[in-house]
Design goal:
Shape: rod-shaped
CATH architecture of the largest domain: 4-Layer Sandwich
Radius of gyration: 35 Å
Order of helices and strands: HHHHEHEHEHHEEEHEEEEE
CATH class of the largest domain: Alpha Beta
Bound molecules: zinc ion
Helix content: 25-40%
Oligomer: single chain
CATH topology of the largest domain: Purple Acid Phosphatase, chain A, domain 2
Structural class: alpha/beta
Distance between the termini: 71 Å
Number of helices: 9
Strand order of the largest sheet: 4-3-2-1-10-11
Number of strands: 11
Strand content: 15-25%
Number of domains: 2
Amino acid sequence: MPVLWSTIGPARVEQALAKSRTIDDAAALLTSELATRVTVNALRKAWAAFREKDPALAPAGMLLGNPAPIVIAGMPQTNPVQDRNPVQDRFGYGDGPVKPLPRSGMQSVLCVPDIHFPWHSETGLRLVLEIAERAQPDVIVQLGDLYDLLAFSKYPRSYNHYTPKEELELARRLALDFWWQLRKRCPAAKCVQLRGNHDDRAHKRVAEVLPEIEHLVTPAISALFEFEGVLTVQDSRMEYEHEGVLYHHGHMSLGRHFTHNLQPTVNGHLHRGGVLFKQTHKGVIWELNAGFLGDISAPVFTYGAQRRLHGTTLGCGWIDSYGPRFIPFE
Ligand SMILES: [Zn+2]
């Protein structure tokens, strides 16, 4: 039998709601009181109809289970649900003097580690180009060891596939193409080229063997590191500084650069990707090693002094307002 709500009226329903914890309970109560089935839906509809006629009636939800907040004398009257700090509630930490995150205004920097052209990792370079295109860094820094210059090394070697001229021309062509690809993908990015210990091999040989012509050869060697639209730091001992972060090829073991510089530092050289953090009196400083983009399987990386390359990590570095990170490609 349908319920005749017009004969029941809002007062009865209000009473049932006031006696119940939920609207289901109210429907059950009315079912037993009226000896006819009252569904929750019917009850909602009826209450909505009552409110349409009399807008002064409270919404049904307000009649159910919303106890008045407990007020303690002298305490500020806040809503305990809305005003609570979820972090403080959960962990018991208050508002401390913590720097806001992210640090506003920091530019994003793509850190391209040692490539060692022509013994580069094609997969690695493809991934760097993909990251550059997707993430659009403000700055791109190649951290040196752009070339390997194996043919100019004084170390004994048995993997000489190229004459010095062939190796240099091939490596230069590859490097030109790589920077061109980067600049095409990120036309607005500021581009920086650093030099590493491998990049200095040709110059060192001249200085050792025939220092009399050093001044004649230096401009030709420097030109190998110049690219259109790219700022080049020709001295491998020099750092490039951007927003308080020092970028250089590196020459010490991991963790010694930033404790020496006492400021955030980015390097390649060790070919092992990772980040170290240290608390100092000046705040937290860090050192990012951007990893390696050479072809780990190339025989050139297995001879003599290069055996320490075990533990090499293919990848690149990234810095933005949230800090530094190493992106591994394996
Ligand atoms: Zn290197």
